[in-house]
């Protein structure tokens, strides 16, 4: 499906995605009405970016904004259960997410889509880096960075790499990546989706509209991913299974039965990043890149901000920011890269309906002491009491202070919260920056 046959559209949500959806629709000649619950003061920056012809409705918005509308574009933060979305569907209006809108105007530009509970941003950035190193004019974003509609509006790309969340995928109707990558699945966003199966099916929409001409890159180590159906050509990667198309033999990354590169040549820590590199390498290979181009890109990789990023080392203690570790699966995977019983782990925030008992095996093996913050502190305390010593700290500042007092040379103080940040911070990046500020203040005190 290409293009859109609407005269007037309603865009719900005026974040980055919503604003770019408005801009793309206007560029294509569609009249645009936009709605958001926020106030004019809260949205001043975003409103300044809108085309002047867009009709804006703010605050408590009723069904009257659906009058004379042919279709609705929904921003990722707006759930399908929102009353306005429900009313639009009741009226028989077409309701699509912003990434679907972008896809319909993407033309012949191929899209590589990446989803999964953990590692999406890293793999998306790896794909962009490898493609750029190989000489492609590539755009990287969607859930990560620029909105998909903004990329399409700018145009001129040879390939686009889109990180796709369950929020973006669940309402898609035709989105068809040339290469779709599904990394893993662990409990996340259950407060929105209601169940693991609903969450899984939302993610699985990345394969829903592919054809036998397309490619599906699948993690063979995750049964919930490996069992998904797809009409596309299947390509598996694995840390364990040596007959996978991309695998790890303990020393080398292997691709299609041959050594791709030595593990020590990949400048990213942890087994989870070996898996991320295998996924990116396999996706690039089925997209058509040669092995030398893939190796050159992977050798240039660097950890992303707030993803196991070393902030400082103070008196032999390393302070590491993994604020992007916003669910249990991410924390479990990340802990595998640290020495046993040397981690002082800062956990907490908004739980999103997760079962924190799934942390227990990794925490028991790797963590020396846990420091709990935010609204989920009570749930975490209940799950981890008796597994490791637990300190209920309330705030990140108090957690950093106590961890600093307890840690010994050779230990790691790791912020990897397993939770969303919105109870105490604007977002995970704000939480990570605050952690870094607190650590640097400690470093200053030690050096005074």
UniProtKB/TrEMBL annotation:
Belongs to the MurCDEF family. One of its GO terms (cellular component) is cytoplasm. Its main location: cytoplasm. Cell wall formation. Catalyzes the addition of glutamate to the nucleotide precursor UDP-N-acetylmuramoyl-L-alanine (UMA). Its EC number is 6.3.2.9. Signal peptide: none annotated. The lineage of its organism: Bacteria, Pseudomonadati, Acidobacteriota, Thermoanaerobaculia, Thermoanaerobaculales. InterPro entries: Mur-like_cat_sf, Mur_ligase_C, Mur_ligase_C_dom_sf, Mur_ligase_cen, MurD. ATP binds at residues 116-122. It is found in: Cytoplasm. It catalyses: UDP-N-acetyl-alpha-D-muramoyl-L-alanine + D-glutamate + ATP = UDP-N-acetyl-alpha-D-muramoyl-L-alanyl-D-glutamate + ADP + phosphate + H(+). It comes from the Bacteria. This is UDP-N-acetylmuramoylalanine--D-glutamate ligase. Keywords: ATP-binding, Cell cycle, Cell division, Cell shape, Cell wall biogenesis/degradation, Cytoplasm, Ligase, Nucleotide-binding, Peptidoglycan synthesis. Residues 306-419 form the Mur ligase C-terminal domain. Pathway: Cell wall biogenesis; peptidoglycan biosynthesis. It holds the Pfam family MurD-like_N. One of its GO terms (biological process) is cell division. GO terms for molecular function: ATP binding; UDP-N-acetylmuramoylalanine-D-glutamate ligase activity. Residues 114-283 form the Mur ligase central domain.
